[in-house]
Design a protein that fits this description.
alpha/beta; Leucine-rich repeat, LRR (right-handed beta-alpha superhelix); 2 domains; five-stranded parallel sheet
Amino acid sequence: MMKKVFRSTVAAFLMLALSTALFSCAMFEKDAGDGSREPLPDDSQYSQEEVYASLIGLLRTEIERLRTEQNADRNAYSERIAALESELAAVKDSSGSSSPSSSDSTASPAGTDEKAFTYTIDDGKATLTGYMGESDIVTVPEKLGGCPVVAIADDCFRAKVRLTSVILPEGLEKIGWFAFFGCTSLKNVTVPASVTSIGYDAFTNCPKVVISCASDSAAERYAKSYGITYSAIPG
């Protein structure tokens, strides 16, 4: 019932708007080609179907405009983050602050320290939400907070321009939208066969990336659909 009332209201509004616009145009006249003037046609020639067709065209145009603006904003955002990450890396390299000290000899292997990751836990399962470490080679632990890691959240590694290699753990099931978007230095991501879902544009703007995955896995199918280079590993 509510849908019928809504559609009737929209149709009435559109007819009123179109009638008003055409009435305004009728105040003017157009050249008939022989020096005389003739009035513009009134709105009586427009059927309800034509009004709906006009509305559909206008709405589609507006949707495409908004999508274009959204993508432009998203790309500008990613480029800005990438630029800041590069600047930060350059400053750290020049200051030597990223060089390991002798006290680090017993630290966890590069990119595996649990303190470098942010995550959430729900129903005894962990979702990786971010990486705060400085290593360019990352091995995601199978467990965080004592719980198995089953998902990589949306935007988790987004614009981490220093990353060159990421190994995802066995038991992982899902990789979120834009998870590695803009990782311009990323060369290899190892995706286990347990992954069954990979989100939209997860590896977009990663021009060097190769996905290592099992044959006929979700990761291989994803790589093929996006034209991403992949290499087969034992499933």
